[in-house]
Input
Amino acid sequence: MPEQQAAGIVIAGAGHAGGSAAAFLRQYGWQGPITLVGEEALPPYQRPPLSKAWLKGEADGAGLALRPVAFYAKQDIALRLSTRILALDRAGQRLLLADGGAVPYDRLILALGASPRRLSLPGCALDGVLELRTTLDADRIKAALGPGVRLAVIGGGYIGLEVAASARALGAEAVVIEREARVLARVASAELSAYVTEQHRAQGVTILCGADVEGLEGQAGRVAGIRLRDGALISCDVALIGVGAVPNDGLAREAGLAVAGGILVDERARTEDALIHAIGDCTVRPVPLYGRKLRLESVPNAIEQAKQAAADLCGRAQPAPEVPWFWSDQYVLRIQIAGLLHEVARTVARRDPATGGVAFFHLAADGCVQAVEAVSASAEFMAGRQMIAKRLPVAAEALADPARAMRELIPS
Ligand code: FAD
Output
């Protein structure tokens, strides 16, 4: 265990990654001070329910919390909430705060997350134009939705689609406006996009693809419609802008750390400054299985990097690299994705009439599974993850046959 000094470890950003890192540090034996500094008023909480159970009124604050608030006192983790960090002073080893104060550190973990991407279109500042990252955002959306309300979602990504599904559950009408030729274009295969589109349409959601937004139009200062470049006007009572997120890497960049679409870190979550690690949505990290550096935005990634940083700071062996994975819940569908759509030569669909589940296996030219996208098919998801990790060829015909048990197909 490295020598532990007075200011201890400071974690900048009290979200999923920061909160997890604090817990892993204690679990791995760090006995010095730990301070979590974050600008939100709540202790670390889970964001996934914000577009799903929380929006539908099916989750309460306790269900959202990453850990019960008593955990932090018990583990001697100092929480400095409602505290905005303005700058990182590397030479002085301290964070400079908006309230004029400073927090000194011996070691620092940057866990600043990401922020919703903003559009610079006319009408974005109208009332009723919303975004979703925090509980406050989710509460605004929840307050705006209800039977008969018309929601327009700009952006057919996971968050936009999840909110559209939740809106339907609340009795609202929903239209999803996507610039690309299909929803989930950046993050899913064409097969999964088509499947998800069909499910949403069956639930009464209007999905418009290849639709470029020219601006938002209002009446008496409130959004009333979305104007498309082809002249069409989609009327709405509320609009959600869900066009992705940008990493909160400004503090790191201004402090001279290497940043390229996120804070650059190595496989131990180290930045180029020996005193600073960075984790979660704000980073670009190596993904060893695919030999690439990527910014991943997911809970499993936040937890994996929190483990990497905590293990490094505690002088412990690094955890084994994980296959990247993600999930999304829409209606009764549980979508689970493992791996990356990288160098895909062939896609095999496996449909199980008995369960209604479907899985798309994406294979490289050598027959190895690169990614699996499973919808209400958890056995396929779990086996697919193992196949990806093993990097051994799998027989495509067997994968497509629902009569073949998944566990028998995992190469050994
Ligand atoms: P965050 O959890 O965003 O935490 C960063 C924290 O840093 C924030 O609290 C922020 O306020 C704070 N911060 C930033 N700048 C400053 C500053 N200057 N001073 C002080 N504090 C600062 N992932 C999944 O795997 N599955 C899902 O189904 C899923 N659904 C999602 C649904 C929604 C609506 C959202 C928004 C995200 C979802 N995600 C999902 C993504 C997942 O929540 C994120 O990947 C995860 O929260 C990343 O953790 P993080 O700690 O890096 O960032």
Notes: The radius of gyration is 22 Å. The CA atoms of residues 197 and 284 lie 30 Å apart.
